[in-house]
Amino acid sequence: MKPVLVTGASGFIGWHVARLLRGRGYPVRALVRAASRIDELDVERVTGDLRDPSSLERAVAGCGLVYHVAADYRLWARNPDELYQSNVEGTRNLLTAARDAGVERFIYTSTVGCIGIPRGGVGDESQPVSLDAMHGAYKRSKFMAEQAALQFAAEGFPVVIVNPTAPVGDHDVKPTPTGKIILDFLQGRLPAYIDTGLNLVDVRDCALGHLLAAEHGRPGERYILGCENLTLSAILQRLAKLTGRRAPTVRLPYAVAFAAGVASTAWANLTHRAPRAPLDAVRMARKHMFASHARAERELGFRPGSVDAALLRAAGWFQAQGYSA
Q1: What is the DSSP letter of 291?
Q2: Which helix or strand (DSSP H or E) is residue 295 part of?
Q3: How far are the Cα atoms of 24, 82, 145 from residue 79, in angstroms, in the given order?
Q4: Domain 4-171+201-227+290-297 in CATH: superfamily?
Q5: Active-site annotation holder among 2, 139, 142, 174
Q6: Cα torsion 69, 74, 77, 80: sign
């Protein structure tokens, strides 16, 4: 059996993809930077960098499948060009290396942020969307990377794209912005909430969706990997019910949140320390990111399970690891 390359195995979704592959008997090769840690996984480590094409050629050599899950996921960066170098040029570099190495299938992990969301509605893969609709370096860089993946697919390289929504669950090490909401709730650091909405999905189901995309996905197509559309207020109410803690009842006007984002980001630009409320995150929160996974269900057989179970598992993992102390 040929090795399977996974990028981002030290991160949230990538860790679960690698874990699931190992559980199914695949030999997994993980592309990591020298300082990266991969806990609890029996995988072959290959040191490299998406910005270093020669390291990618070594990483993909002999591989049958590539799961490109890694991304520079920051909603504020001192140097935004770093996101374009990793997310756009890095993706092109890996696509080129994989194509030249004869990789049989390439699964690219995009984001629901690249899906068109109609005002007041639910987005899906058919909604028109353009770069102009992307706010901030992260979303713009991911959109450009997705376009590069689609171009390779159009040229005949078997690339399948998955667009995860907001995954929740265990091993959210960094944590992700959604995991940070859960952690802030556990720490009592959410005195108020804003009117926004997310589509949540169990990270384990999201990982399974990646494997289903490799098995059944059509090259050049995108598949939303999501589950349940929930307002932020509803998410916090569920967390309260699951953990026995109180949910905030004060709704913060968007204008106040925007002002806080402006101030927080301005201070970050002066101090070079990440802002607590990045302005790009506040801008993104103005739209309810509701989406449908109907295509993934229909074409891949993707059937996600309980979001409540994933929320409870996330809370338990954060507490067990000492995050919420």
Answers
A1: B
A2: helix 294-295
A3: 40, 6, 18
A4: NAD(P)-binding Rossmann-like Domain (3.40.50.720)
A5: 142
A6: positive
278 touches 265 (CB < 8 A): yes
Tens-place pLDDT, residues 229-258: 999 999 999 999 999 999 999 888 878 777
What is d(CA 158, CA 232) in angstroms, rounded to the nearest whole number?
37
The CA distances from residue 129 to 91, 114, 123, 126, 287, in Å, are 20, 8, 10, 9, 14
**Identity of the amino acid at 63:** C
Does the active-site annotation cover 142?
Answer: yes
Residues linked to residue 107 through DSSP beta bridges, in sequence order: 67, 160
| Structure tokens that stand for 174 in this block | 């960094």
DSSP conformational letter for 248: P
Q: Where are the beta strands (DSSP E) in the chain?
A: 4-7, 28-32, 44-47, 65-68, 105-109, 159-164, 166-168, 192-193, 197-202, 222-225, 228-231, 250-251
Instruction: Give the predicted TM-score (pTM) of the model.
Output: 0.95
Taking only the tens place, the pLDDT of each residue in 71-129 is 999 887 889 999 999 999 999 999 999 999 999 999 999 999 999 999 889 999 999 99
Residue 203's SS3 state is helix
